[in-house]
Amino acid sequence: MKTFRKILCSIVSCFFTMLTVYAQQIEIEGKVTDGVMPLYGVSILNKRTTQGTTTDSSGKFKIRASIGATLLISYVGFRPKEVQIVNQSLVVIQLEPNVLEEVVVVGFGTQSKRRLTDNIVTIQGKQLQEIPTPSVFNSLTSKATGVQIRRMNGKVEGGLNVRIRGQSSLGAGNQPLYVIDGMPLINDNESTNGSPLNPLLTLNQNEIESIDILKDASSAAIYGARGANGVVLISTKKGKSGAMQYDLNFSSGISSPSHTRKWLNAKEYVTLFLEAGRNSSWSSEAFVKNRFDRYANHTDWENGAVDTDWQGMALQRGNTRNFDFSAKGGTKHTQYFFSTNFNNTQGIVVGNAMERLGGRLRVNHKVKNKFALGASLSYSRVGIYRVANDGSFLTPLQAVAQAPISPAFDASGEPFRNTVYANFLLEKKYARNKTTIRRIIANVIGAYELGNGLAFNSNFGLDTYAQATDAFRGKKTPFMATNGRAYASSVTTESYNWANYLEFKKHDDIHSFTGVLGMEYNEKNRRFISVTGIEFPEEGFHNVSSAAKITKGDGAIRKNSFLSYFTRLNYSYKNKLLVKASFRRDGASRFGKQHRFGNFASLSAGWVLSEESFFNFWKELSFLKVRGSYGLLGNANIGDFRFLNLYTANSYNKLPGIESSQAGNKHLKWESSRQLDIGLEFGLFENDLSGSIVYYDKRTDGLLFAKALPYSSGESKIYENIGGLKSSGLEFELTGKLLDSKDWYWSISANAAQNKNQFTSLPNDNADQIKGQNILRVNQPVNSFYLIEYAGVDPANGDALYYTNNLINGKRSKAVTNDVSKAQRVVTGNPNPLWIGGLTSNVRYKNVDLSCTIGGEWGAKIYNGGGRYQSANADWFDNQTHDQLNRWQKPGDQTKVPQPRLGDANGTANSTRWLESGDFIRLRNVIVGYNFSRRFTQKIHLSKLRLYMSALNLWTLTNYSGYDPEARYDGSLQSRGTAFYSAPAPTTIAFGVQVKF
């Protein structure tokens, strides 16, 4: 009885205590952010009462708690935080990201970074915003470890080269597979003027939530035959439950060439070339003067009557304007996101400009608790005014070859015609070349939860890429033999993708299983047509329909398809022992029946050592994981119908006929890539300092080569799988939070990657293959430079000298000769960088923030192909770089510039004279912003107001004498490390405003 009374008294006492505590509670209002954006769905728990709530779409919450109580704040991907209540006013809580719990997109699913056994680099969309460039991937440069992103040159539409861990192929392409919201993107270069065009210009970076780059076999194996060059997964933004939120971003800026070169002025030009005429073996000073009269349009060139800055005529001050608007919101069951964007960019190359307009709509709806539907639709239209490729005399930058004594315009105001080479201003005035791209990307996604951790997913996607080109050259343009010529082409490519897969998840305190099993079908149809016409009545008639004569028509229809089956299984034991296996079977119409299907598999494992008790002795160590993977991937980018014997229609004596156009090879198969990846990931001081060290080895077999055939066979070549390529390297990544206080925040992220590649085998018993200034040789890097070595100038007579490099007793002789024919070519450099790296710093002081990214490349050589004309000691009448004034003039002169001798080719042979180091460090972007206080924005009924200044390519440190260490020739030698009148990257400074309401 006494025991019962004690129990009853205790219950009553507890009851009254609880009433007292509850009576002392008040309603606390708060808001949770990531420092910039509000966070939706954050868990708020009162530790004393265990009562809880979550934040709404504005990041706000209300909870009852007493003064002095502690709130526990937790959110996926962020560090948990405890906050003590000191008063009833609004509590603003900022959460810090927890990189180890970050969710990573892995292809047909997601996974936490802690459990990842793959090598994946993730770039959040907010890291790409505010950078003044129309290309998404220009914003990524130097931010992703082991990923080299280089725009071909400074043209607004410049082709994009993305290399993930270096080069994996020679004849089957090296671009990665791009996938947006599960839909593989069309990424074909459909340029018609010889200069590659970036088809991904249609993407808007402000619509991107994140970009995940799959670098190793374990991560990319789920994409099998198309994963050898890596996979880039793009996730777009989506709506969230809550009141509608509007975002507006506007920026405007100016651009200028990041670097210009110093050329001879009129006086220096006249002096140098008169001297060259006197020294010439066949010319004379009188011959030079006669040419000067013609080039100067009979003006007083002796007294500098004309001194034209042709570089200033070719390059201009550009500008850029960018506008983005989006709205998102929704209910518990339906969320939506809508955005529209506009970009107008005037390039730094005269006549080069771009305009883009687009929009995106994405809706997610939960029909029932177990059934969800999603749909997205985007449209973009890009108009590009193009100029000729770098190898054409009509491209603006080749104007630097013109003599400064030549006027740009004659007395009538027309572009002057008697220049050394064709005057590009005639092309600018009387020609046009416009390319218009229209793109629609649509997705419909369905997911049904079957129960017991099993779900069925279906994703149907469509990518329609339509490109039209309209080009016209009037009768007054250079080299025009008729009354004008017009060209029009249209190419439309439609890609359908349908993926269906089962997803399985099962977790308990010890074991965790996730798996995927599915199939995917992809079909791509391409249709191309073009027509050419000549003879136009007037300059104002530009369309082909106005041509008096149609001279040519062309057309082609192409189709390919992939049928794939795939599976992936992940297992985790106590969240510390990790295993993953992937398998994909791909079938492709690009191969014959014998080799139509291929199998691609990978296996990876990881061990979180920091979870083991024997690591407790190191208290500063918060995370340590070792992982490794091995797998087989494929490359199917060989083009369509390569395995078939093809025929084409032709005419002979105006009669129709058929002729062979391709020798088929029914044994043609995939290029296969075997990849090993071993990594160590670590975190120190509660992950305030984290990083990774990775070694990889990638070997590609069955390289696609065009093997030469005897002409008696009727064909010049046949495609075969012969050759091997090896790439290996190291990757380092380090991220640290240096300051984190009420007023100050500073974090730094650095990455560096080494890549070495070399051929392991080549066709024809490993025979060398020489292509221009490059060579393919076993145990040498891809497209190594193969040149005679320049040895300087003979101080006695001004002759250019070369090393003979003859083999004597197994060693190369370093004897010199002035006879080019006696000098042997040798491997002299690598066009691919040995190291690439980047460093990003983010600093915030109160409402002011500063972020910047620095990047660089080391170990690559650049061959300045234009040097033979523009730095050639006045060999012909091309204007010369200013350093050519330091030429040999008298016996005893010590210089690297030979005696100027007009037309005598003294030192102008292709040689290492124009081979330079491509090392550079570049300040890629800088962003300075100011966020107005919450008190101020509330007064004007806004949730955010931000002003910012953003700069691109602000500074470059390099010893390279050319325009830009990243610019390359955009013609047929584009992948071989050659620069040739290639425009520099633009330096852009923009000012912008962001508004949220």
Task: Walk me through what this model shows.
The protein is mainly β. The protein has three domains: 96 residues, Immunoglobulin-like (Sandwich), CATH 2.60.40; 136 residues, TonB-dependent receptor, plug domain (Ferric Hydroxamate Uptake Protein, Chain A, domain 1); 628 residues, TonB-dependent receptor, beta-barrel domain (Maltoporin, Chain A), CATH 2.40.170.20. The chain contains ten helices and 55 strands. The strands form twelve sheets. The protein has a 22-stranded antiparallel β-barrel. β34 and β35 form a beta hairpin. α4 runs antiparallel to α5. The longest helix is centred in the N-terminal third of the chain and has 23 residues. The N terminus is likely disordered.
The low-confidence runs, each spanning 5 or more residues with pLDDT under 50, are 1-23
Give the name of the CATH superfamily of the largest domain: TonB-dependent receptor, beta-barrel domain
Number of domains: 3
Mean pLDDT: 89
Helix vs. strand class: mainly beta
* Number of helical regions: 10
The level-1 CATH class of the largest domain:
Mainly Beta
Strand proportion = over 45%
Second CATH tier, the architecture of the largest domain: Beta Barrel
CATH topology of the largest domain: Maltoporin, Chain A
Please report the total strand number as a whole number: 55
The N- and C-terminal alpha carbons lie at a distance of 66 Å
Helix content: under 10%
Sheet having the most strands: 22 strands, antiparallel, barrel
Rg: 32 Å
What does the overall shape look like?
A: globular
